[in-house]
Amino acid sequence: MAAPASERRGSTRTAVVWSALEPMLVRGSDAGSDAGSDAGSDVGLDVLDIGGGTGGLAVRIGELGHRVTVVDPSPDALAALDRRAREHDVAVTGRQGDLSTLLDVAGPDSADLVLCHGVLEVVDDPAAALETLARVVRPGGVLSLLVAQRYAAVVARAMAGHFQQALAMLDPSTAPAPRATTAQGRARRFTHDELAALVREAGLGVDTVQGIRVFTDLVPGSLLDLEPGATAALVELEQAVASRSEYLPLATQLHLLAHRS
Questions:
Q1: Which helix (H) or strand (E) is 254 found in, with range?
Q2: What is the DSSP secondary structure assignment for residue 2, as one 8-state letter?
Q3: How close are the terminal C-alpha atoms of the chain, in Å?
Q4: What is the rounded distance in angstroms from the CA atom of residue 93 to the CA atom of residue 85?
């Protein structure tokens, strides 16, 4: 049975994000293997996945030989992570916690790669959260951020006929206060400039910013259901435009890679 359109849409996001992370993960795995053969060193990288949930990305990274720890507040998600890891015969560590307790769970300078995907939108203080993330990344390590973008949300609201909501989203100063935002279940959305500024203020250097789901959310699900090869072609198109700045404002999400000097 073919996967539903919602899963195929998700695959376009995963493909572009994975393409950005894969060079580091493969290089880190190879370097760890070489060092291990000579000096008995641990293979691979120390990877920390904040809010990694059921481990869709964590298990895939673990299969490359990296040491992966998922930090998530949900016991149910961590239980599902454990089942997925055992099904794939991969060792992934699950720890209950969130960004507010991250330093207690992981400790400073503990990870070569930190993944924070879909989390920054719902924390009380994004600037403080990024400062914590920066402390966890080792010198020379990388932070991977995936966040919702405001511009695409304005377009989506307008196309749905919610014109007042779209108008309100144009000016972030009119948005609800951060604590009210999370309490009401309304995730924040960031622009490229806002996100890059927050990352730099946390002491990290911005390497790349990609647009994720530039076209995916605009494509009818029926087309993905009925047109042979449509999903693969959509993934190819998304990968082609992800790094093109002229398409960045159309992206539903932004994927930023930053490093700690």
A1: strand 253-259
A2: P
A3: 48
A4: 9
Nearest to 121, CA basis, from 21, 69, 168, 188: 188
Asked if 50 and 75 count as a contact pair (C-beta separation under 8 A), the reply is no
Q: Are β-strands 253-259 and 111-117 bridged in parallel, bridged antiparallel, or unpaired?
A: unpaired
Please say if the pLDDT value at position 174 is more than 70: no
Q: What is the pLDDT of residues 214-230, one digit of tens each?
A: 998 888 878 877 888 88
Amino acid at 30: D
**Rg, the chain, Cα only:** 19
In the prediction, which pLDDT does 2 show? 52
* Location of structure tokens 């930190």: 114
Supply the pTM of this predicted model: 0.88
Q: Is the pLDDT of residue 177 over 50?
A: no
Give residue 107's Cα distance to chain centre.
21
CB neighbour class for 226 (10 Å; exposed up to 12, middle 13-18, buried from 19)? exposed
Distance CA 26, CA 248 (A): 27
Backbone φ and ψ for 185, nearest 5 degrees, come out as 75, 15
- The CA-based angle 15-21-27, given to 5 degrees, is 130
CA distance 62 to 44: 9
Mean pLDDT of the region 202-207: 98
Tally of CB atoms within 10 A around 214: 24
Q: Where are the beta strands (DSSP E) in 128-170?
A: 137-148
- In this model, does residue 167 exceed pLDDT 60? yes
